[in-house]
Design goal:
Layout lengths: L9 H10 L8 H7 L4 H6 L4 H7 L1 E7 L6 H12 L5 E7 L1 H14 L5 E4 L18 H6 L3 H17 L4 E2 L24 H16 L6 E5 L14 E2 L4 H8 L1 H8 L4 E4 L2 E2 L15 H11 L5 E4 L5 H4 L4 H11 L4 E2 L4 H13 L5 H17 L10 H7 L3 H14 L1 E5 L14 E7 L9 H7 L5 E6 L5 H8 L7 E7 L13 H13 L3 E5 L14 E4 L5 H11 L44 E2 L10 H12 L5 E8 L2 E9 L15 E2 L4 H15 L9 H4 L11 H5 L3 H5 L11 H4 L3 H10 L14 H15 L3 H13 L5 E2 L28 H5 L9 E3 L1 H12 L3 E2 L2 E2 L3 H7 L33 E5 L3 E6 L4 E7 L12 H16 L20
Parallel strand pairs: 1-2, 1-10, 2-3, 3-4, 5-7, 6-8, 7-9, 12-13, 12-14, 14-15, 15-16, 17-19
Antiparallel strand pairs: 11-16, 18-19, 18-27, 20-22, 21-22, 23-24, 25-26, 26-27
Helix pairs in contact: 4-15, 4-16, 8-9, 8-18, 9-11, 14-15, 18-22, 19-22, 20-21, 23-35, 24-30, 24-31
């Protein structure tokens, strides 16, 4: 056999030798073995047919003294003393049993035995002393693939110390069915690309720390509504869908070198030739698709052959033979391992199975053991175990990742963090979706130690409706209520939501009060049953580590920053989640005050005379500077002017109203893109002084001539328009797809050296948007919406506005074919990028922009919501000083020359304009915000010059004049039309 197929395993042994050398300080006999080569090839030559078949068998047991009866121990010894055992699957265990039993089993075995386990959530899932981690979906919720690597690395270190060498993990199923009763939070995501990325990182973490990895459950168990533990599960049969969704992560991790792939008891009846055969027994799936078409050459292992997906329809001997004939190398046994060896031996003798296939599979197993170092030392070492399992460093990593995973999906009544100063009682319900479970949860126990009044109540599936009604009758109206919903998918349960009585109970609590916080300590899809709850969090699992993270989140002791790795149908898309900054526990905090909130006032409140503003707005429309506009002006948080003027078009049909929605064009650069970079900086995920290629390697492009020059361009250069990149290119004329447009953008070469001069560049802004997506793992629109717009209540700020907002959206220009651009982005490059780009594409209202502007005036705070750190706002709204004499700040512009914001702006003002006819200026010295939204490109972009520019400046100046601010800034000039004081 060609042993090159085993190369993916080599790094297992090499890395494990360096990481855990203490385990291999063995006898002189082992020292001799170190010099041996091709141990697997030499060993297989000595084996009988039955011993080779035995190498393909996985025995199953609990590694605990209490679980091993004398009869069980005799059975194990008999297997070892006769044909042997290839591997042992551990359901659970403990350190003392591993030290004694595993060492004795390995001592008695002629050939070392590989020990495997399903360790999806850390060794603590199987061994109490091990570190417990969040489920895989929660790891994705952190938004950081490095966390998947770190979890894999720690799992490998602790498992090897416990004597477990093979992890039957990770799950790379795509969970695109919310009702999936068995995969659910065990999956990384509903997005195949995300599953591939996080799965590959997890696998790399395992392999680089000496552990054998497994991708499961091929060909995909994510879109099923049946638990294959109980019955055969069906997956979709659409060919293109299977290859682009279900199979994609398996293809990706196979190419990345995963050591083994587990076959599931599922079928795609309209895709596979024999419709009712589970993949485990299907030559079509195992050999034709996985081995031949995908080209996978590693170990192929079955799922447990004792599961209902097989046993309900097939006799044990039939199923075992068919699995091997299908192409499976390793069988996770049902119960009769000797009977299985007999059955396969007979099939070989009857020429149903070739001896070459047995040799190939047995050699794969032996080679895997060799590359894992088992032929050198298979024993568990007490010193190494004590120094590795459950150590402080590993627990701290688990706590951090769990904290980052907590996801706040909605908080409509600002119930979080819990207000410790409120005197009304907090009613805390632990609701379990199982019977006879009335124990106080650790989250409830932690909350009881706080200093506010609290009552805790436990409910489980055994509680009848009349009992629940008695409890409901004791809850006062409009109480503060916290529901800890322990509702997790689990084998044999075939359900992911609450049973009927508990669903009824939660809905009744929501009728009693609208101050309900619902936490899912399990499936994130629970919100589907309770869409009207005011606050919803996802903790993904009811484990102690997730409950501890939840406690810190509820109390404001840590930031809440998780993002949904899946979509909740008809409610929230993938990537949704609110950011909530932790509460500072410091007496000084009481001296702080909330950021000023906007308030609509009468003009006289700020001593404004708005008649002149009305006059100017009407004159601009009379001169056809634009068909319609909205102007909003505020002073010290007081909105004293907010009006619409004119019509949506020159046809005069739709009146422009103050709440109308405009295409902001380049204001996208500040409100969406720059603010997203600011948020990433606050989160410690980006350093703006780093080169762009540090975060976005594709930025180098394909032309090596410019590699060096482009490698010097920093994120700060892009923000300050000092990168040397050109202002604009018509990419939309060159390429047809988003991917090709981006490739052309990455290939764009600088026309100047960075920091030589200022070139206002759309190209740089697009790159910034891609950086946000690369770092956060979320598209720019999702990241900006969840981190900035939603927390600020900017409900009418979005990319690609929904069709139900069309009536309020102001159109831009007519296209050459006579149709009008209405409800989608005006900028052609942004349109070619799907409407979401760093330079254009955002739509909003004057009021939403005013809220954002007031937050910036408040140094990043709006009310009690902290959006940006004070120092970050200061850094980004101060001159960048990257290019001498430039007016550019970081993302923003400052006033100079014929200032678009008028001639009275203070030098510390900052703002931006948009090509469609939009402008916003923020004056911190005078506490003034002016936002002018027009569609000046209507009916076509040639209509803008010069009337639009003249009237834009004049109206901005007129706002200041209405407040009797008439001291001109000597650094600013009126446009020529106004020099004579017209």
């Amino acid at each position: 056999m060609n042993t090159d197929n085993m190369k993916p395993y080599l790094r297992l042994f090499r890395t494990f030798i360096s990481v855990t050398a203490i385990v291999f300080l063995v006898s002189s006999c082992a020292s001799v073995q170190l010099n041996q080569k091709n141990w697997a090839e030499k060993t297989i030559k000595k084996l009988t047919l039955r011993q080779k078949i035995a190498q393909m068998m996985i025995y199953r047991m609990h590694l605990k003294y209490a679980s091993i009866t004398p009869q069980k121990w005799d059975e194990i010894k008999s297997l070892l003393d006769n044909d042997g055992i290839g591997g042992i699957h551990i359901w659970s265990g403990d350190g003392s049993s591993a030290l004694s039993m595993l060492n004795e089993i390995q001592r008695r075995s002629t050939i070392p035995i590989v020990i495997d386990a399903d360790i999806e959530r850390g060794l603590g899932q199987r061994f109490p002393a091990g570190t417990d981690f969040p489920p895989l979906m929660a790891i994705t919720a952190t938004g950081n693939p490095n966390n998947a690597y770190e979890v894999g690395a720690i799992v490998a270190k602790e498992s090897r110390a416990a004597g477990v060498q093979w992890n039957l993990s990770p799950v790379v199923d795509v969970n695109n069915n919310p009702l999936n009763p068995i995969i659910n939070t065990r999956s990384f995501s509903e997005n195949p690309g995300i599953v591939s990325e996080y799965g590959a990182q997890y696998i790399r973490g395992l392999q680089e720390n000496g552990m054998i990895s497994t991708a499961k459950h091929f060909p995909g168990h994510g879109d099923t509504q049946t638990d294959s533990h109980s019955s055969l599960a069906m997956i979709p049969s659409d060919s293109s869908r299977l290859w682009s969704v279900e199979l994609k992560p398996f293809i990706d991790v196979a190419n990345a070198g995963v050591d083994a792939i587990m076959i599931a008891h599922v079928h795609a009846p309209d895709f596979q030739p024999e419709s009712d055969i589970p993949a485990t027994l299907s030559k079509f799936w195992v050999t034709d698709i996985l081995k031949n078409k995908i080209g996978y050459k590693g170990i192929i292992i079955t799922d447990g052959m004792g599961m209902g997906g097989v046993t309900k329809n097939y006799a044990d001997d039939y199923a075992i033979i068919e699995a091997v004939k299908a192409g499976c190398d390793v069988i996770i046994q049902n119960y009769d391992i000797v009977g299985s060896i007999n059955a396969i031996e007979d099939a070989v003798k009857n020429n149903e199975i070739s001896i070459e296939q047995i040799n190939s599979s047995a050699l794969k197993m032996l080679k895997m053991k060799e590359n894992a170092g088992l032929h050198l030392n298979p024993f568990v070492d007490l010193d190494f175990m004590m120094k590795t399992i459950g150590i402080k460093e590993h627990k701290e990593a688990s706590d951090r990742i769990s904290t980052e995973a907590i996801t706040l999906v909605k908080d409509e009544k600002n119930l979080l963090p819990l207000d410790i100063d409120l005197k009304d009682t907090l009613y805390v319900f632990d609701i379990y979706d199982q019977e006879h479970k009335h124990s106080l949860s650790s989250i409830s126990s932690s909350l009881k130690r706080e200093r506010f009044p609290i009552r805790t109540i436990q409910i489980d599936e055994s509680d009848k409706k009349h009992v629940l009604d008695v409890i409901l009758g004791k809850i006062p109206k409009n109480s503060r209520i916290l529901i800890n919903a322990f509702v997790s998918p689990k084998e044999w349960k075939d359900r992911i939501f609450f049973p009927d009585n508990e669903t009824y109970f939660v809905k009744e609590l929501m009728r009693i009060s609208d101050r309900v916080i619902l936490v899912s300590l399990g499936t994130p899809y629970l919100l589907m049953d309770f869409p009207d709850v005011s606050t919803y969090l996802c903790a993904y699992k009811g484990s102690s580590v997730m409950q501890n993270a939840l406690y810190k989140a509820l109390m404001g002791k840590e930031n809440i920053s998780g993002r949904l790795p899946i979509s909740i149908p008809r409610m929230y898309e993938i990537g949704s989640g609110l950011f909530l900054e932790k509460r500072v526990d410091n007496p000084i905090v009481k001296k702080f005050e909330p950021g000023k909130l906007l308030l609509r006032v009468r003009p006289k409140t700020v001593n404004a005379n708005i008649s002149k503003i009305d006059q100017l707005m009407n004159q601009a429309i009379a001169e056809n500077a634009w068909p319609g506009a909205v102007l909003l002006a505020s002073k010290e948080g007081n909105i004293f002017y907010q009006k619409g003027h004119g019509y949506h078009t020159y046809q005069g049909r739709n009146i422009t109203r103050s709440s109308d929605i405009f295409d902001l064009a380049s204001i996208t650069k500040t409100v969406a893109t720059t603010s997203s970079i600011m948020k990433l900086k606050d989160l410690g995920k980006i350093d703006i002084n780093q080169p762009v290629v540090h975060y976005l390697p594709k930025f180098k492009g394909n032309d090596k001539k410019y590699f060096n020059q482009k490698s010097k361009i920093t994120i700060k250069d892009l923000l300050a328009h000092a990168s040397g990149l050109p202002a604009f290119k018509q990419y939309y004329k060159e390429e047809k797809t988003r991917e090709l447009v981006l490739e052309s953008i990455y290939d764009t070469f600088p026309i100047k050296s960075n920091r030589d001069t200022t070139i206002y560049s759309d190209v740089g802004a697009i790159i910034l948007g891609e950086i946000v997506e690369k770092i956060s793992g979320l598209s720019l629109n999702v990241f900006a919406d969840s981190m900035i717009f939603k927390p600020l209540g900017m409900g009418t700020t979005f990319f690609n506005p929904p069709s139900n907002k069309m009536r309020r959206i102001v159109p831009t220009e007519f296209k050459p074919d006579g149709t009008i651009v209405h409800g989608y982005v005006h900028d052609e490059n942004a349109y070619s990028l799907g409407g979401v780009a760093g330079h254009a594409g955002l739509f909003s209202t004057a009021k939403d922009l005013a809220v954002f502007s007031q937050m910036m005036l408040n140094d990043g705070l709006y009310g009690w919501k902290r959006i940006f750190k004070t120092e970050t706002v200061s850094e980004f709204t101060t001159k960048a000083n990257v290019v001498d004499g430039s007016s550019r700040l970081l993302g923003w512009d400052s006033p100079g020359g014929y200032a678009s914001g008028g001639i009275y702006l203070s030098d510390n003002s900052f703002g931006h304009t948009g090509f469609t006819g939009t402008s916003m200026w923020i004056d911190p010295d005078q506490g003034i915000i002016v936002i002018l939204l027009t569609n000046a490109v209507h009916p076509n972009r040639k209509n803008k010059s010069p009337k639009y520019y003249d009237w834009r400046q004049r109206i901005h100046s007129g706002v200041y004049e209405s407040l009797s601010i008439i001291n001109k800034n000597p650094n600013l000039k009126p446009r020529p039309r106004w020099e004579e004081g017209e």
